[in-house]
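Shall we go through a protein fold together, starting from nothing but its sequence? Please make up or recall a protein chain and show it to me in full. Go ahead whenever you are ready, and we will take it from there.
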Amino acid sequence: MRKSDYRDLVVWQKGRILCPEIYILTRPFPDFEKFGLASQIQRAAVSIPANIAEGHGRSSDQEFIRFLHIAYGSVQELETLLGIACDLGYIDDVEPWNTKTQEIAKMLSALISTLKRRIEDSK
């Protein structure tokens, strides 16, 4: 059982900060995208900290790793969707967002590696 709280994880904090920024970013999207691309972008962003928190609450590091991989996939999905939004002219510049998502992706990868080492060391 973990002694820490998922809210102590910097990667979760960064994912949590990203969510309202994404909602603000997608607010001016055209009305016809409200339940399309804007919604997909928002769901991908929310999925990042949500999966980190859910995985942290699971009973093993192996399960936590599985949820961290899902969060990592959501980062990749978010980057792709933001690129599409940029291609469609809904976002002027996707690079600042890619910088944020890539930082989160690196942090997730590092956490996954740390947990895998801990599992190996306990054998």
